[in-house]
Amino acid sequence: MTRRWLTIASLTVALVAAAASLPELAGDDSLAPRRPKRVTPHPERPLVESFFELGGGRVDAALGNLNELVGRQPDFALARLVYADLLAIKSGRIDRLGLLSPGEQIAGLRHEAQARLARYLEAPPPEALPAELVQLSSARSVILVDLRRFRLYLFENRGGRPTLGQDYYISIGKGGGDKRREGDEKTPVGVYRVSSYLPGSTLPDMYGPGAFPIDYPNPWDRKLGRTGSGIWLHGTESERYSRAPLSSLGCVTLSNLDFLALHERVEVGRTPVVVVDGVDWREPERVEITRRELAAAVEAWRRDWQSLDTDRYLSHYGPDFQTEGMDLARFGSHKRRVNQAKKYVRVALSDVAIYAYPGEEQTMLVEFQQAYESDSFRSRRRKQQYWRRHPDGWKIVFEAKS
């Protein structure tokens, strides 16, 4: 009996077969919204529990979970499919999942089942942190989007260190990730910021209760010649609970339930959105080593700028450096002229954030608020620096105002 129902559970391909040997999900509340314990769990949880029940041959328990879920969330197409097919199999009408749905639809639902179940079967190591989130600014939270796993992680800021709060299944661009040009239907990879909020009442139904546009293309994207626009985090059509993993034109799509939960934590103009093709989970100690290394490099750059020793200051810039239409040679000439006329320079940095830049080898994005003062000029601005590891240490390869 168990072997037969493991075959039936092939909707989740080989992943479900492994479920029987994994710990039970009963104590896993990480997906449930932060509300009193008596509130019904997040819809994903009973669905995945039903896969685990099937993996253990507990067919009636799986049907019970699915019956309750479909009654409560009738627009959850994946749950309806599994429930209807299990009933049909039990009655002898069909002998495997998916025969009651069109081929294209079942392919998308199968992919969704894989993505949702992988969250439990391939969870990051306990206490691990994303290598991409080296140091956080003062924003109260940060969004980390994992395109490979179709997962959005919401991290809370605890004194500059990320602490995982919630995580949600997402859909992304039909073309996958790493957007390069307008119309490629891909989701960009990089570090962005929520730039605005658009309420659902002002949008077509396909966006659900609202949308958070992000600032793609950012300065790094523009430097690389990437084009496109209109990349949003948004909800889903009112008649459906969720979409297939690869179904948008480049946006990141959540269920309306999850979008509303996320909405409570987002600060327009402040919340970072880091989009990666696979999170690099590491031990906190290794992330801290990277943080100290970059913090020391940035402090040396700040100190040498104040010294008015232009050669020492320029030693922190790579030979391929660019900023505001200037290469290193033009930038160096400009700084020498400026420094010759200065009696003193004071530079203070605050609200520093450090990210391992997604999709770029040995490249770090450092963002900070910069307060500059000299005997003839004062300014305060937000700055972005892209640092890359060279044979003789970390060097700045690009600067931009944010």
How would the blueprint of this fold be written?
Layout: H1 2-8, H2 14-19, H3 44-55, H4 59-72, H5 77-91, H6 103-121, E1 129-130, E2 133-135, E3 141-146, E4 151-158, E5 161-169, E6 172-173, E7 190-193, E8 198-199, E9 210-213, H7 219-223, E10 232-234, E11 246-248, E12 252-253, H8 256-263, E13 272-276, E14 281-282, H9 284-306, H10 310-314, E15 317-323, E16 326-327, H11 328-340, E17 345-356, E18 363-374, E19 378-390, E20 393-401
Helix pairs in contact: 3-4, 4-5
In the CATH hierarchy, what is the architecture of the largest domain at level 2? Beta Barrel
**What is the percent of helical residues?**
25-40%
Summarize model confidence as the mean pLDDT. 89
Under CATH, the homologous superfamily of the largest domain reads: L,D-transpeptidase catalytic domain-like
Given helix and strand content, the structural type is: alpha+beta
Low-confidence sequence ranges: 1-38
Give the end-to-end Cα distance, rounded to a whole number of Å.
61 Å
CATH class of the largest domain: Mainly Beta
What name does CATH use for the topology of the largest domain? L,D-transpeptidase catalytic domain-like
Cα radius of gyration in angstroms: 25 Å
Largest sheet: 7 strands, mixed
Write down the overall geometry.
elongated
Number of domain modules? 3
**Major sheet: order of its strands?**
2-17-18-19-20-15-16
